From TrEMBL:
Pathway: Nucleotide-sugar biosynthesis; UDP-alpha-D-glucuronate biosynthesis; UDP-alpha-D-glucuronate from UDP-alpha-D-glucose: step 1/1
Domain of life (superkingdom): Eukaryota
Classification of source organism: Eukaryota, Viridiplantae, Streptophyta, Embryophyta, Bryophyta
UDP-glucose/GDP-mannose dehydrogenase C-terminal domain residues: 328-452
Record-given protein name: UDP-glucose 6-dehydrogenase
Keywords for this protein: NAD, Oxidoreductase
Family per similarity comment: Belongs to the UDP-glucose/GDP-mannose dehydrogenase family.
């Protein structure tokens, strides 16, 4: 029986290994992590991450061929294939601070693998890492040579949160990069055989190590670039009276462009896009490619601009002051169907409004009060660092309350901001919400999920990203 061990039971490691276990009953999969609470949660009825369909997959395999353990060294020593899916946070100090990936966790995982191994192993990079990481890892692994053969592969994960199970079950492609040596190719074939249990062969792409590492950064940069492109257009739409949804539809009909990932929004979030682009920018800079670095940096800058622009719209529409006004924030997760708040645009929007002394009442169906307060207290990039660096007991925010109901959040509010596109926000009784709000009642739809005309009929003053402006909003705008 082939044994797989995955170091890191996070958003990537957990679901990916669960899918491998489900599709390969003849393989034993152990997911290990240094975090005891995380492993305890994976072994309980309350999994540590919310992902549609994940519960069923985990329950079908757990204790059969899928195990979660904190006994990292034992399981690494026993495995034939070791996936490494540990955090690679953005550095917050030192060289490359604010851009470069911090490989501390990766390095310590690699050193541990080298120390405990007694048999040949394939070590697979699963977390997104800077190009050429494999080379560094290879050096660490082979340095303590005890006659053990290590083969390094890069197998970046392309799953998106909220659709992880679907993406894993039917991936657009699986990418495996390896050394072009006989040993490297043998390792590639061994990993290919794992995925071939359920992924059609023509979807399993094999490349050299560096192409695989760079493809992951490139794919995320391209996806984020589409969002920044449509968001840049949304600003122009608002100025010209065009409708960004109509523009996106017309543009997306061109088969060379395609319709996906063209939804204008308050900004992209998530653990990957910004981080990976900043990392790409850093790699370009290190290679003397200033213009290329500058090109990709713009994608992040437009994203920051879009979040700031949203806050400015809110403040200027409400007579240039939100001081002491209650504003409901509907949605805090970085997108729907996840409880993940990493780099969510909600954090920047809330900070912007709090800076103008608004009173926020926040509701998200999947994010706890503790998490929201911790996020609002955290410094940029701290979310990916160990828990002891993060604020443990969130400082009391007098201006923030977190509630468990959209009607409660909007009661007596002056304005409502939709930050996450949760389906339930489309189905709310907006007449009831309007009746219970201060007048004039404002709605700022950061996700274009609401029916603007219907809301205007009720009496709301409505702003929706990239849509023709409400005459009211237009008259009150300062320069955006
Ligand atoms: C373009 C648009 O495609 C068309 O829809 C619009 O109506 C007019 O402008 P055109 O300029 O005729 O059409 O040619 P196109 O095939 O788009 O190529 C434009 C340039 O891009 C060419 O120099 C081409 O060589 C280059 N190109 C295209 C690349 O360098 N790489 C590519 O992948 C595609
Ligand atoms: C992304 C990539 O899609 C995935 O392939 C990679 O493995 C990890 O990073 P994820 O961050 O989970 O996945 O979510 P994604 O669906 O890509 O959304 C990222 C952000 O972009 C979200 O905040 C989302 O709301 C936003 N978005 C997405 C838009 O604003 N408009 C769109 O059209 C699409
Ligand atoms: P991702 O989104 O890439 O999956 P996460 O931050 O969700 O990243 O998960 C990474 C996991 O890796 C965390 O649970 C962390 O505790 C774990 N981890 C980090 N370093 C090690 C290590 N040396 N050994 C075992 N687990 C580790």
């Amino acid at each position: 029986m082939v044994k797989i061990c995955c170091i890191g039971a996070g958003y990537v490691g957990g679901p990916t290994m669960a899918m491998i276990a489900l599709k390969c009953p003849n393989i034993e999969v152990v997911v290990v992590d240094i975090s005891k609470p995380r492993i305890a949660a994976w072994n309980s009825d309350e999994l540590p991450i919310y992902e549609p369909g994940l519960d069923e997959v985990v329950k079908a395999c757990r204790e059969k061929n899928l195990f979660f353990s904190t006994d990292v060294e034992k399981h690494v020593a026993e495995a034939d294939i070791v996936f490494v899916s540990v955090n690679t946070p953005t550095k917050t100090r030192g060289l490359g601070a604010g851009k470069a990936a911090d490989l501390t966790y990766w390095e310590s995982a690699a050193r541990m693998i080298a120390d405990v191994s007694k048999s040949d192993k394939i070590v697979v990079e699963k977390s997104t890492v800077p190009v050429k990481t494999a080379e560094a890892i290879e050096k660490i692994l082979t340095h303590n040579n005890k006659g053990i053969n290590f083969q390094i592969l890069s197998n970046p994960e392309f799953l998106a949160e909220g659709t992880a199970i679907e993406d894993l079950a039917k991936p657009d492609r699986v990418l495996i990069g390896g050394r072009e040596t006989p040993g490297g190719q043998k390792a590639v074939e061994a990993l290919k055989a794992v995925y071939a249990h359920w992924v059609p062969e023509d979807r399993i792409l094999t490349t050299n190590l560096w192409s695989a590492e760079l493809s992951k950064l490139a794919a995320n940069a391209f996806l984020a670039q589409r969002i920044s492109s449509i968001n840049a257009m949304s600003a122009l739409c608002e100025s010209t009276g065009a409708d960004v949804s109509e523009v996106a539809y017309a543009v997306g009909k061109d088969s060379r462009i395609g319709p996906k990932f063209l939804n204008a929004s308050v900004g992209f979030g998530g653990s990957c896009f910004q981080k990976d682009i900043l990392n790409l920018v850093y790699i370009c800079e290190c290679n003397g490619l200033t213009e290329v670095a500058h090109y990709w940096k713009q994608v992040v800058q437009i994203n920051d601009y879009q979040k700031t622009r949203f806050v400015k719209r809110v403040v200027s529409s409400m007579f240039n002051t939100v001081s002491g006004k209650k504003i409901a924030i509907l949605g805090f997760a970085f997108k729907k169907d996840t409880g993940d708040t990493r780099e969510t645009p909600a954090i920047d929007v809330c900070h912007g409004l709090l800076g103008d002394k608004a009173l926020l009442s926040i509701y998200d169906p999947q994010v706890t009060e503790d998490q929201i307060k911790r996020d609002l207290a955290m410094n940029k990039f701290d979310w990916d660092h160990p828990l002891h660096l993060q604020p443990q007991s969130p400082t009391a925010f007098k201006q923030v309350s977190v509630v468990w109901d959209a009607y409660e959040a909007t009661k007596d509010a002056h304005g409502v901001c939709i930050i996450t596109e949760w389906d339930e926000f489309k189905k709310l009784d907006y007449q009831r919400i309007y009746d219970n709000m201060q007048k004039p009642a404002f709605i700022f739809d950061g996700r274009n999920v609401l029916n603007v005309e219907a809301l205007r009929k009720i009496g709301f003053v409505v702003y929706s990203i990239g849509k023709p402006l409400d005459p009211w909003v237009k008259d009150l705008q300062v320069s955006i």
